[in-house]
């Protein structure tokens, strides 16, 4: 199964990756376009999000409503989103409808109407989302953490900022479209009941005339403060902690992954056991490995009632430190078991595989096989993981809190 | 392929093999939830769901988490008004190792010390949802809509009810509700049916028999509106409830279809009227089909300034649908949309488990994906008309949480 990934690059630079999963009825696509929020211009935070919405509001021969009806007629479960590096268009459908579904995506990217009156709706959507975020402290704390931790502009939130909204005009969004919605570094991952040979002629027809000429990837600028507290009236205090980790393409990545899994993989992991099970300090606590192309981070979260927030932060930090003291063989074995089952189960979903293919290509410039990842994880020893943790300790943490009182 | 058997103590077991699957999902569906509580023990079903993971006389809490993690299981539990579910998804080779653990923990030790620690976690969970206005609105709407009815009891309970709860009360509740006739074991994916039955006999055969009652009095919601003011919020979250078909009413399929046409998160009547133009952040309808009664649940979020106008827009859409129905084209598109959802979800064992278990628990009914698609295809405009005559889209209960003091 795992050797069934094939790839090609068409003339305009679009990379196409196909993994054949013949036992499924479905096929899914994930198209990454290098137009993430890191590309948002100064005073234009949120432009990628607005544009992402705008290009689907009428394209090719169809107006906004006809586009939606066509997607429903074809039974495409589609989604568009923006993260820091990419604008992403995903979809899943019965395999027979993949080609017309991609046809609609081709229209969005090459023939969007970009009507002035539709722009107002797109901007309102961004604003509503931002206002909703203000009322959702759990999500907000992690976003504010990333904003302070990662270097500019790779810290820019995909959601945008309320302050920049008034500066986002249709004209600027059109310029962003011209500069960034290009095939040069775009990646199309496809998985399911489909082969590259079958779908390539359709891809040539749909995307072959998409003009290259996208802007270069932005560099890395300065970072924000390492301690911050945002006052809020709330029942709980939200805590976010970030510290350095290697990126996905680093040879140490799987050691980093295993370390985070020991911290926060399953319910027997350290954070869940120490913070929730033993002390009952929280309902939700976790750590996750985040990655840009050239650097990574461990992001930790805990939410707890205000009176117990300081204790929660203290326990959390001591657990992060304790990781360098040693990791038991059994802990690592549980991380390996989790990796194995996740990798196998991912193959039951065409959508999951399509996204993984495209993501791997962005970070590594190649695809990985399930067997290869599993072998790399299986080979890890506790000593290797601890050695990694000691070289990347949680010493210089960035800490952001939201709640009535600051913590120390 | 579908399998079914009943153990001597009344435990029903249903299985659906999915030949393409690489994993197996299995779950115990217990017909108990907040509606089966009394006000004094409100929150006990959900608290008990947590306590199950604290282990038995044989397994400590650490053992439970560790043993699941050792096989890389994806496992969790959930509690609703009507059903408490414990499930795990594992690779097929680990089924026989994981099943005895999953079965054993349904009869937990309920140790006092674990009870006290976990109570803190539950109070944290209540605090967490208290900071999420949409949940606050939902809980108040359910309390208002089902005032005096068991469905008016909120799932998590309140800070007060949970604080006052004792381990003895929980033990009594568990002894009354966790009886084999009140539980369904559902298995989906790649498995050997004979092994499942043998395991179930060995691990569940001794469970106490019995089928406890559930009271299903008719609901008589009275029109009401409540505005819970929280000045610091940016948005106003509004929840509306209106009567809809129950879990055993054949019209529930048409009702489900109606929610897609009127209030799906994209390309629905409400989407085009409220969300696409940017008037609202979101406006969606879903069906909650309970035993004996049902509701349409509407979530509306957006700026406080637009809320009155948005409620008027929402009502205009609902009135129009109630009076003039929907079109053949809308029905056909919705059928396409839902068919794909059913097929795609059905590719994963976990995607099938929920309907497999629920359908058998509540209705003793099995429908394959093909059955679901046929049923869907058979829905007519006439069905939709009858549905709207019996259940017009008229808001009965409205709750807002946000800066507003009223509209």
Spell out the blueprint of helices and strands.
The complex is a heterodimer of chains A (408) and B (407).
Chain A: E1 5-9, E2 15-20, E3 26-33, H1 47-54, H2 64-74, E4 77-82, E5 87-94, H3 98-110, H4 116-134, H5 137-149, H6 170-180, E6 187-192, H7 196-207, E7 227-231, E8 236-245, H8 253-264, H9 270-277, E9 284-291, E10 296-305, H10 309-322, H11 329-346, H12 350-364, H13 370-378, H14 382-391, E11 398-403
Parallel strand pairs in A: 2-6, 7-11
Antiparallel strand pairs in A: 1-2, 3-5, 3-6, 4-5, 8-10, 8-11, 9-10
Chain B: E1 2-6, E2 12-17, E3 24-30, H1 44-52, H2 61-70, E4 74-79, E5 84-90, H3 95-104, H4 112-130, H5 133-145, H6 159-164, H7 167-177, E6 183-189, H8 193-204, E7 224-229, E8 236-244, H9 252-263, H10 269-275, E9 282-289, E10 294-302, H11 304-324, H12 328-345, H13 349-363, H14 369-377, H15 381-390, E11 397-402
Helix pairs in contact in B: 3-8, 9-12, 10-11, 12-14
Main sheet attributes: strand count, strand direction, barrel closure of chain B? 6 strands, mixed
Name the biggest interface: A-B, 74 and 67 residues
Can you count the beta strands of chain B? 11
Q: What number of domains of chain A?
A: 2
Task: Decide which structural class fits the backbone of chain A.
Answer: alpha+beta
| CATH architectural category of the largest domain in chain A | 2-Layer Sandwich
CATH class of the largest domain in chain B: Alpha Beta
Main β-sheet of chain A: number of strands, strand sense, barrel status?
A: 6 strands, mixed
Would you write up a description of this structure?
The complex is a heterodimer of chains A (408) and B (407). By secondary structure, chain A is α+β, with helices and mostly antiparallel strands. Chain A folds into two domains: 5-207, Cytochrome Bc1 Complex, Chain A, domain 1 (2-Layer Sandwich); 227-403, Cytochrome Bc1 Complex, Chain A, domain 1 (2-Layer Sandwich). Helices cover 42% and strands 19% of the residues of chain A. Chain A has helices at 47-54, 64-74, 98-110, 116-134, 137-149, 170-180, 196-207, 253-264, 270-277, 309-322, 329-346, 350-364, 370-378, 382-391, and strands at residues 5-9, 15-20, 26-33, 77-82, 87-94, 187-192, 227-231, 236-245, 284-291, 296-305, 398-403. In chain A, 54% of the residues are buried. The model of chain A has no long low-confidence stretch (mean pLDDT 96). Chain B is of the alpha+beta class and 407 residues long. Chain B has two domains: 2-204, 2-Layer Sandwich (Cytochrome Bc1 Complex, Chain A, domain 1), CATH 3.30.830; 224-402, Cytochrome Bc1 Complex, Chain A, domain 1. Chain B is 45% helix and 19% strand. In chain B, the strands form two sheets. A six-stranded mixed β-sheet of chain B has the order 1-2-6-3-5-4, with helices on both faces. A five-stranded mixed β-sheet of chain B has the order 7-11-8-10-9, with helices on both faces. The N and C termini of chain B lie far apart (54 Å). The relative contact order of chain B is 0.17. Classes of the chains: A alpha+beta (408), B alpha+beta (407). At the A-B interface, α2, β5, α4, α9 and β10 of A face α2, α4 and α12 of B.
